[in-house]
Design a protein that fits this description.
- The chain is built from 5 helices and 5 strands, in the order βααβαβαββα.
- The chain has about 150 residues and is α/β, with parallel strands linked by helices.
- Helices cover about 35% and strands about 15% of the residues.
- It starts with a strand and ends in a 9-residue tail after the last helix.
- Strands 2-1-3-4-5 form a 5-stranded parallel sheet, sandwiched between helices.
- Homododecamer.
- Catalyzes a trans-dehydration via an enolate intermediate.
- It catalyses: 3-dehydroquinate = 3-dehydroshikimate + H2O.
- Keywords: Amino-acid biosynthesis, Aromatic amino acid biosynthesis, Lyase.
């Protein structure tokens, strides 16, 4: 299964920024764990990190043509990027939204996702392990179908 993992804004600062919320693991370490898991479980994984909303949209469009699923951590764009939500809705593959922290236990503005209504599902609050859970979800629902098995 070909999967694209997209890390959004500020995730390049993992391990340095708000360790009490996001933990002390760097993005490189987390990416290594994702790739190792993928290798053991038959995934071909491409990983990207960008602080640019437009680049996330371009990556989603590309994934819609080239992949069977997406793991997306949209970072702060979660709460207000209708453009990313539209891009998720526009592609015909499952997108699993991931958040390292539990967005529902944080500030009020973080408790709403404009991406979730178009995602196959959302995983929040399990730290970096959420990315592995998202890959498991994609494997379970059968990649390539927007919302999983019919």
């Amino acid at each position: 299964m070909d999967v694209m993992v997209i890390h959004g804004p500020n995730l390049n600062l993992l391990g340095q920024r708000k360790i009490e919320i996001y933990g002390n693991q760097s993005l490189d370490y987390i990416n290594g764990e994702i790739l190792e898991y993928g290798k053991k479980n038959g995934f071909k994984i491409e990983i990207y990190q960008t602080n640019s909303e437009g680049e996330i949209i371009d990556l989603l469009h590309r994934a819609g043509r080239e992949c069977q699923g997406v793991v997306l951590n949209p970072g702060a764009y979660t709460h207000y990027s209708y453009a990313i939500g539209d891009a998720v809705e526009a592609i015909d593959i499952p997108v699993v939204e991931v958040h390292i922290s539990n967005i529902y236990s944080r500030e009020e503005f973080r408790r709403k996702s404009v991406i979730a209504p178009y995602s196959a599902g959302q995983i929040t609050g399990f730290g970096p392990f959420g990315y592995i859970l998202a890959l498991e979800a994609l494997k379970n629902i059968g990649g390539g179908k927007k919302y999983g098995k019919d």
